[in-house]
What we know:
- Helix content is 70%, strand content 0%.
- It is mainly alpha-helical.
- It has two domains: 19-144, Tetratricopeptide repeat domain (Serine Threonine Protein Phosphatase 5, Tetratricopeptide repeat); 158-213, no CATH class.
- Helix 1 packs parallel to helix 3 (51-63), helix 2 (33-46) runs antiparallel to helix 3 (51-63) and helix 3 (51-63) runs parallel beside helix 5 (84-100).
- The longest helix has 24 residues, at 122-145.
- The mean pLDDT is 87.
Amino acid sequence: MATFIWTILLLLGLNISNPDARMGNKSYENGDYESAKTWFYSALDQDPNNAEILFNLGNTLTKLGEFEEALKVFMQAKSYTDDNHLKALADYNIGTVLAENEQWKPAMKHLRASLQKLPSDSEGQFNYEYALMKTSEEEDNNEQNQNENQEPPPEPSVYAKAVKEQADTLVNESRYASAFNLMQEALGVDETVRYYESFMNRIGAVNQIEQTDN
């Protein structure tokens, strides 16, 4: 089978009114990713919830190899938009970043989410099937080694750290249910999220109290 298609989808050249965002786009197109990063952060200081700027910043951070921060920014872009096309692009790029770090199960989850919104995307379909295959291989290996090692969960992965940061943001906004659900979904695809089990228990308890009060 052919290998994964390493393509980060772009959302540049948009009619963004923020002049710093336009400068960021220009720097990105010129391959000056450090300058683009500076411009996009400056643009976000003025418009922190702009999903399009966040998306382009995520692309920039990916080019710079800052994968953990890129994942967090793509997740933020998803949370600040109702545009399904933009959500699909963000999920695709999250999946691609995770695949580059060989985190196949969470990569598969996000590629599938992208494909559900863009079902005619042949490249997305191929990459989803490839991630599905690699996930199956990993699960077979894990099952084989399950009884050989009884070690505690490893340190949190890049994906786990990014999800935790996004959950912290939701908690700071008192969105405990959303934070808890985010962590639970991530745990389903990345065992290292269990590193934050005490955090999950805490926000889960707060969420239960809030539901009881309501």
